[in-house]
Design a protein that fits this description.
Distance between the termini: 20 Å
Helix content: 55-70%
Order of helices and strands: HHHHHHHHHEEHEEHEH
Number of strands: 5
Shape: elongated
Strand content: 5-15%
Length: about 325
């Protein structure tokens, strides 16, 4: 049963492996070059809260050099959806074509057939998610040291969330497929559902999974609180010393620095009745808490969907 199931699953598995190999070939040269540049330029010595002007220029040059590839990785968030839906295809195709009946008339029971088909798909999905996570984590390592891991592109491709994303796409494709019994439309609907769910979580839900922190600081010192280093800042605005919003024309009070950064002019803020800034943020220490909660949400939904697909196939498919 396992050998037959693998033979039926191998085409989609090879395609998924091909996608990962293509991504590896794309990222490997720039990843090696970036790691070399990071150490050659001594950027590890520029990780303090207030780096010198030479460090700021070096960091800006490094970021600009590899920014295009870093932006491309933001699109890798679609890869778990593609792989998950793809690996569910053999299971749905058997139901569409009716070839499952041959297996059921032999010595293979329905439960064993369902467990074998879905088990192989889940195993392949977890291996693919592991490979993708390791690849992107390795490539982004210098950027993580400089910018942290709460940036959207980094958060979506590191930690444990990729496992949840991939299983969710697989479960959604299987659940839609067993009801519809048309593989191509079911996979398209599943991918659209995956994309919609990811968009909802990224834009609205994630920032609400854990209560954010707040900070109010004086801009006269030209420094920001240490907790804001590598933090995910949700909102930031001029305020009084109690954190209450003060209306200030920031366009007049923000000046560009030589390395394309921005600084707030304390004198300008004081002239408009504000010498403080207030921020609502998730500190870098919230990374794993947010990761595990989000992984649990997607993995839990995946288990429900896979369980539904198994139940429907066992009870409703003739």
């Amino acid at each position: 049963m396992i050998w037959v199931g693998w033979r039926q699953q191998r085409t989609e598995t090879v395609i998924a492996a091909g996608i990962l190999c293509l991504l590896t070939l794309l990222l490997l040269p720039s990843g090696l070059e970036m790691a070399s540049a990071y150490h050659r330029d001594g950027l590890s010595h520029c990780l303090g809260q207030d780096p010198s002007s030479s460090c700021a220029r070096a960091i800006d040059s490094f970021t600009s050099r590899f920014e295009s590839t870093s932006n491309l990785i933001g699109w890798f968030t679609l890869v778990p959806g593609v792989i998950g839906a793809l690996l569910a295809a053999p299971f749905v195709l058997e139901l569409e074509q009716g070839t499952y009946r041959l297996a059921w008339t032999q010595s293979i029971t329905r439960r064993r057939w369902i467990a074998g088909k879905l088990g192989l798909a889940v195993g392949a999905a977890l291996l693919a998610a592991l490979a993708l996570t390791l690849l992107v984590t390795w490539w982004r390592s210098p950027f993580v040291h400089l910018q942290g891991r709460l940036d959207g592109a980094a958060f979506d491709s590191e930690g444990t969330v990729v496992f949840g994303y991939t299983l969710f796409a697989l479960g959604l494709a299987a659940a839609v497929g067993v009801v519809w019994r048309r593989a191509v439309p079911a996979l398209m609907v599943a991918f659209a559902g995956y994309f919609a769910a990811r968009l909802f979580v990224d834009i609205w839900l994630r920032q609400r999974l854990v209560a954010p922190l707040t900070a109010t600081w004086s801009v006269s010192g030209h420094t920001t609180p240490a907790n804001l280093n590598h933090a995910w800042v949700l909102t930031q605005h001029p305020s009084d010393r109690f954190g209450n919003l003060v209306s200030v024309p920031l366009g007049r009070c923000v000046r560009l620095t030589g390395n394309h950064g921005k600084i707030v002019d304390p004198a300008c803020l004081a002239a408009h009745g504000s010498g403080y800034m207030h921020a609502v943020y998730h500190p870098a220490s919230h990374f794993w808490t947010l990761q595990l909660i989000e992984t649990g949400l997607f993995a839990g939904a995946a288990l429900v969907l896979i369980g539904f697909a198994a139940w429907w196939t066992h009870r409703r498919v003739a």
